[in-house]
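Section 5.1 Outputs to date
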Amino acid sequence: MASEKVETVVAGNYVEMEREEDVAQVLLTLPYSFSQLGMASGIVFQLLYGLMGSWTAYLISVLYVEYRTRKEREKVDFRNHVIQWFEVLDGLLGKHWRNIGLFFNCTFLLFGSVIQLIACASNIYYINDNLDKRTWTYIFGACCATTVFIPSFHNYRIWSFLGLIMTTYTAWYLTIASLLHGQVEGVQHSGPAKMVLYFTGATNILYTFGGHAVTVEIMHAMWKPQKFKLIYLLATIYVLTLTLPSASAVYWAFGDLLLNRSNALALLPRTRFRDAAIVLMLIHQFITFGFACTPLYFVWEKFVGVHKTKSLFKRALTRLPVVIPIWFLAIIFPFFGPINSTVGSLLVSFTVYIIPAMAHMVTFASPSARENAVERPPRILGGWAGLYITNIFVVAWVFIIGFGFGGWASMVNFVRQINTFGLFAKCYQCPKH
């Protein structure tokens, strides 16, 4: 009984870390999304994508348990081996699914790490603007490269709990500071005004609740991975208690000013509380950079054949080539906010929503597969019929709204940032001195 309680706490920390991984920096851009969507749509999309994200996390957990159970029946030994999502797809559906999953998952994690690095530079600038954001990106890139020495997710246990505290503080700081600040003179809330802005904002929220690209690796670290789906749902509900009040309060206070300030911290007056929020975000973003990169490190280690070596130094040297392109991309595309929407529409839509839903439907397409399933859908969902209807809805919605309209809008907005600020922008959205 005691071991089960420990397992639940540790698993809860891991899952909270996964949920906070993207929410940490998206917390600062959600008010920007509200200015694009309007208050009502912003709230509705958060609730909708929070529910969809929890659903696909459930599907991934079911597929993981199915894969592992089948392999263990074949006497496969997983000691000193971390199971990853592409291996689950390979074992259940074959190499073509594996290759598709590997491409989208790795590309998403790559750009997720890029966004963390961009966020670090964007945040520290509001404490010390003696250096431009590009220079800060150089500095934090070097700092984040030290994550190659962190072996696995087990080493993030205490940091996962601290990260939760850091994000909670920042969320409530944004809420309280905005309410105390009050509405700026002549505040306007014109959103939604343009389709491009509307779907750009929606895909940023899609990205917010699509942070479970490391679900399989976390489940592999659990004694009872079946608990994952419930813990993830509770974590999502907690995240909503942070994102809804903070985004609503900042948008209420500053309105359309957020359209040109994707980082909410840029509009709040400098105080010791704001500086504390920035410092906590910087620490947390360093942690989540490593958290997002760890699956990439594992993939690369397996590719070059050093995944099972016990030499920490050898593994660290092997991992360095993974960090270099992340650093470079953060310098080329420093568009904090717009890049979230682009990644959300083009990568998260497939990685976290479409592929898991389709993989689940194909895996259990035959009557025998459904009959022998390790974990069957609960009756409250309507059994297999209800599950398939829900999966079809998720695939259709995300493909049309998220990838289709969202991809069009986010790319138009992204190109607009390039035309306005240029590649390798020295100081994106910095006020003129």
